[in-house]
Amino acid sequence: MFIDIAKVHVKAGKGGNGSVAFRREKYEPMGGPSGGDGGRGGNIILVATNGLRTLMDFRYKKNYKARNGEDGRKKNQYGANADDLILKVPVGTIVRDEETGIVLADMNTDGQEFIVAKGGRGGRGNVKFKNSIRRAPRFAEPGGVAEERDIILELKLIADVGLLGFPNVGKSTFLSKTTSAKPKIANYHFTTLKPNLGVVKMSSGESFVIADIPGIIEGAAEGVGLGHEFLRHVERTKVLLHILDISGQEGRNPVEDFHKINEELAEYSEKLSHKKQIIVLNKMDIPGIDENVKEVREKLGDKYEIYEISAITGKGLEKVLYKALDYVKTAEEEIFYDESEAAALYETKKKDTINVYKEGERYYADGYFLDVLVESTNFGDYESLKNFQKVLNDKGVIDRLMELGAKEDDTIVVCGVEFDFVE
Questions:
Q1: Which residue blocks in 232-316 are alpha helix, DSSP H?
Q2: Do the annotations mark residue 172 as ligand-binding?
Q3: What is the pLDDT of residues 18-44, one digit of tens each?
Q4: Which residues, 6+ apart, have CB-to-CB distance to 211 below 8 Å?
Q5: Looking at the predicted structure, is the pLDDT value of residue 344 above 50?
């Protein structure tokens, strides 16, 4: 089964907690702090591989979680860092943030890696909080917050040349005659239900990858029929061979078919509508096609290069393939995602964004910065709690709460933790 899109939830590992410990050796019963740092939580890393052709592995398992870092220990012993969780995806996979739709990575090279969720940093042990005034700190830092997100994995077939055309125009036959691929061929619609890849080896010694994409029907841009299952895989190709059944055996008009498919391409993606196309008139071995050939050349010949072939007999195939190769060699590489846009999304999640608002009789403060602050605060320790209150004041949270009308003993909820407001 060919699976080319999957929704996955990923959660990296939380950082290990720092340790609160003191030296208690035989001759140092009142020794100083000796709590070690916690280990880093495991990252979740996507790795592109040519060994996979579909996203089948993600069809049944939707949730992935990396291990947490190990807590720090006494005697200044650090907790171990957690192993990263490696998820393999096919080359050609686009990684998209579900919430925003922003493309985070284009996994287009074998062995390419992308950290889709970063593990939390290890919390500092109490030895790190010792100074000339605080000689025996009785608190440590909890492990850092782990990244968590919903992502969409979208496989866009990597091929140099795509075969475009309505069902049953001869694309599978074309592929079988020009490559070693063995697609299923029969005289009925939608023989091809999944993309078939083949390598064309030219007599010159050069080669390129060609793909027989599932046939398109009207409304594909809205998901009708195979819809996006078809259009998604056209995006990476450098040139399209638009195959038309010039025989008109099924009562179809080749020119009308050409325009209908291009309307679907334009509706799905403006970029697709400008992709280079070569018109290929197939089934030239069938008698009585002169009028159809004339009509296509008159109406489309001024804008497109037109080649006549018979896929079943092999006539005219070499000329088409060499022309396609010329375009493959001269085409510019397309960029499928904006690195700066992805970076901006990452930074947005890391900014000191703080939201302060009122709902009903309660006041709320949340945001990524406060999530980290709450996670790193030991509310059972006076010094740690005092630091928490200082940060809220320094960041303007207290002032904002007062502006909203908060007064003594009102309930304040900071990232799920409730407090009584004290002016």
A1: 254-268, 270-273, 290-300
A2: yes
A3: 888 888 777 666 678 888 999 999 999
A4: 157, 159, 161, 162, 163, 195, 196, 197, 198, 233, 237
A5: yes
Q: Is 207 annotated as a binding residue?
A: no
311 is in an annotated binding site: yes
Residue where the block lists tokens 């928490």: 388
Q: Say how many residues make up the chain.
A: 423
Question: Domain ranges in the chain?
Answer: 5-155, 161-330, 351-420
DSSP string, 318-379: HHHHHHHHHHHHHPPPPP-S-HHHHHHHHHHHHS---EEEEETTEEEEESHHHHHHHHT--T
* CATH level 2 (architecture), domain 161-330: 3-Layer(aba) Sandwich (3.40)
pTM of the entire predicted model: 0.66
> Is 282 marked within a binding site?
yes
Average pLDDT over residues 195-217: 77
The secondary structure element, H or E, covering residue 57 is helix 57-60
167 is in an annotated binding site: yes
Q: Does the annotation flag 171 for ligand binding?
A: yes
Q: Which fold has domain 5-155?
A: Spo0b-associated Gtp-binding Protein; Chain: A, (2.70.210)
Largest CA distance in the chain: 106
Please tell me whether 176 is known to bind a ligand.
Answer: no
| 287 known ligand binder | no
- The pLDDT of residue 346: 60
The response to whether 170 counts as a known ligand-binding position is: yes
Token pair listed for 292: 């159809």
Location of structure tokens 């060994």: 51
Q: How far apart are CA 163 and CA 291, in angstroms?
A: 24
Residue 182: the pLDDT is: 61
Is 76 annotated as ligand-binding?
no
Do 309 and 282 meet the contact criterion of CB atoms below 8 Å apart?
yes
What one-character DSSP code corresponds to residue 258?
A: H
Q: Give the per-residue pLDDT at 192.
A: 44
Architecture of domain 351-420: 2-Layer Sandwich (3.30)
What's the pLDDT tens digit per position in 304-323?
999 999 989 999 999 999 99
Task: Say if residue 168 carries a ligand binding annotation.
Answer: yes
